[in-house]
From TrEMBL:
This is Enoyl-CoA hydratase/carnithine racemase. Belongs to the enoyl-CoA hydratase/isomerase family. Pfam families: ECH_1 (PF00378). One of its GO terms (molecular function) is catalytic activity. InterPro entries: ClpP/crotonase-like_dom_sf (IPR029045), Enoyl-CoA_hydra/iso (IPR001753), Enoyl-CoA_Hydratase/Isomerase (IPR051683). SUPFAM superfamilies: ClpP/crotonase. It comes from Sphingobium wenxiniae (strain DSM 21828 / CGMCC 1.7748 / JZ-1). Coiled coil: none annotated.
């Protein structure tokens, strides 16, 4: 559904958003390119109405500005068409994502993690995720990390500093159940020990972390069971209140949960060749390791929505420009 900004300014908000007859897989796109009024004022006036939309809302503007209230603000028709295609391909995941981000923007981090987990659990039972899972090649479902004699994490304590090394380089530090539980325990230790003032987190091998293990996807019996597990064992729960202690050092591939967990850190650095990506919407899901909270906290709701919906791979330099990391280090 496309409307001119004048329509949003003069009367569209008088109609209930649910009565607009928006086609499944559609968006509401408001064109501000020929608008002579105050775009920010119109967006602010329509914010409550926009937040009730049962689909993503996109503002087409003449420059790269973020109009409050919209799920996305985009500067070119080409970018709008790209996002329309994303929504058409995964309408449920796209809608659940923007609804989740709308709520999280207004909530404390711990409450936001609950909302994210419930939304993720909903999508785990959805048709989009089932179709993605069914099309996953058998090879991709084979665990990258093999059972090993060495622990998934190596911890070293030095005075008031704790060093944590993700120690599954052969699997590019994928976050499987073993790694998740080890991270939860390590982050719990740092949270409970007031003498630990600084925590440095690194990854062994050529990547910081490629995120959740594909071999674990779909293994949980139900969305409800998955939510229960995340309520008890999600590493992000230990970071949300103690992230200021953490310095995450990123390199190589930083994908999915690898980005989500690191974004909680009080200080995040990356090597010049590192790249970051959040591909979950293309799987029929949303980030479920805390990223809807942590990434939004760092780059705002609209930046988070764009990164998550497009699944775009971004460089360390772009991540620095956006505020997703704090510095580039060699």
């Amino acid at each position: 559904m496309r409307v001119e900004a004048e329509g949003l300014a003069t009367g569209l908000t008088h109609y209930d958003p649910l009565s607009l007859g928006i086609a499944p897989g559609g968006c509401v796109i408001v064109d501000f390119t020929a608008f002579d009024g105050d775009p920010a004022g119109v967006a602010a006036h329509a914010e409550a109405w926009l937040n009730r939309l049962p689909c993503p809302s996109i503002a087409l503007t003449t420059e790269r500005v973020r109009l409050k209230g919209f799920d996305l603000s985009l500067p070119t028709p080409g970018e709008v068409e790209r996002l329309e295609a994303v929504v058409a391909a995964n309408p449920v995941a796209s809608t659940v994502l923007v609804q989740t981000l709308r709520l999280i923007e207004q909530l404390p981090m711990q409450a936001g993690l609950v909302v994210e987990s419930l939304a993720f659990a909903t999508l785990q039972q959805g048709e989009e995720f089932r179709c993605w899972l069914a099309a996953l090649p058998e090879q991709a479902q084979t665990p990258l990390s093999k059972p090993a004699d060495s622990p998934p994490l190596i911890l070293e304590r030095r005075d008031d500093m704790l060093d944590i090394l993700l120690n599954r380089p052969e699997g590019r530090n994928e976050i499987n159940v073993e790694m998740r539980d080890a991270l939860f325990e390590a982050f719990s230790l740092a949270a409970m020990d007031d003498d630990v003032k600084r925590v440095h987190v690194r990854g062994a091998g050529d990547s910081f972390s490629i995120g959740g293990a594909l071999s674990d996807f779909g293994r949980v019996g139900s969305g409800a069971a998955g939510h229960f597990i995340r309520s008890e064992r999600l590493p992000a729960r230990m970071l949300a209140d103690h992230g200021h202690k953490y310095h995450f050092h990123l390199h190589g591939a930083c994908v999915g949960a690898g980005v989500e967990i690191a974004a909680f850190g009080g200080h995040v650095t990356a090597t010049p060749t590192a790249f970051l990506r959040l591909p979950e919407v293309s799987m029929g899901l949303i980030p479920g390791a805390g990223g809807c909270v942590s990434v939004t906290k760092r780059i705002g709701r609209q930046g988070a929505a764009w990164l998550m919906m497009t699944g775009q791979r971004i460089s360390a330099r772009t991540a620095l420009k956006w505020g997703l990391i704090d510095a580039i280090e060699n």
